[in-house]
Design brief:
single chain, alpha+beta, Double Stranded RNA Binding Domain, Arc Repressor Mutant, subunit A, 2 domains, 3-stranded antiparallel beta sheet, two-stranded parallel sheet, 5 helices, globular
Length: 193
């Protein structure tokens, strides 16, 4: 993944942990949980807390975590810069944007949507490299039988997000799925109506 040379960053504390946002002159280029897999070297980017793309993204995320499922619906109020990915990755990320809150799709369904039905593993790899978590909703992708599978931000976050969107049965998170010593209480997060 290549990021624009003028990429900047800022931080935001979400109910699921610290998030690092990034933007280029073209738009929002990243939303990363601080402890997720495939985290780029964000310290190389200068901080820019007044960037309008990142400010708009924080507004969207705040509305989402406050219970507005439509906050992540397209068209988004912030332009996205996905140019750092390959053409195939960009096609997969664009397909993710079409999955509405409250729904999940399998990797196989996503492969069909990008007209590469035999490329399920490649689709999975592209989903895993999605640089704009939450807004490009890779958390809505599940295994063929509906099981939760990989999520760069951690399966406990994926489960919490899908529960917020009523895409999973309301069950308590198993203690083994929670990260150690975060102090996060997912039971107090709002549920979408």
């Amino acid at each position: 993944m290549q990021f624009h040379p003028s990429t900047t960053r800022s931080d935001w504390l979400s109910p699921l942990g610290r998030i690092i946002l990034s933007a280029s002159p073209l738009g929002l280029s990243g939303i990363f949980f601080e402890d997720q897999r495939h985290l780029p070297d964000v310290q190389a980017w200068p901080e820019a807390t007044d960037n309008p793309f990142m400010q708009a993204a924080v507004n969207v995320l705040q509305a989402y975590f406050d219970g507005d499922a439509r906050a992540l619906a397209t068209p988004l109020p912030v332009p996205l810069d996905l140019q750092g990915g390959t053409a195939f990755q960009q096609a997969v990320w664009q397909a993710l944007l079409r999955i509405p809150a409250g729904q999940t799709h399998s990797y196989g369904q996503l492969a069909q949507q990008v007209q590469r039905p035999s490329a399920v593993r490649a689709v999975g790899a592209a989903v895993g490299r999605n640089p704009i978590s939450l807004i490009v909703p890779c958390h809505r992708i599940v295994g063929a039988t509906g099981q939760l599978t990989g999520y760069a931000g951690g399966l406990w976050r994926k489960e919490a997000l899908l529960k917020m969107e009523h895409a999973l049965p309301t069950l308590a998170l198993p203690a083994s799925a929670l990260p150690p010593s975060t102090g996060l209480a997912t039971a107090s997060m709002p549920l979408f109506a």
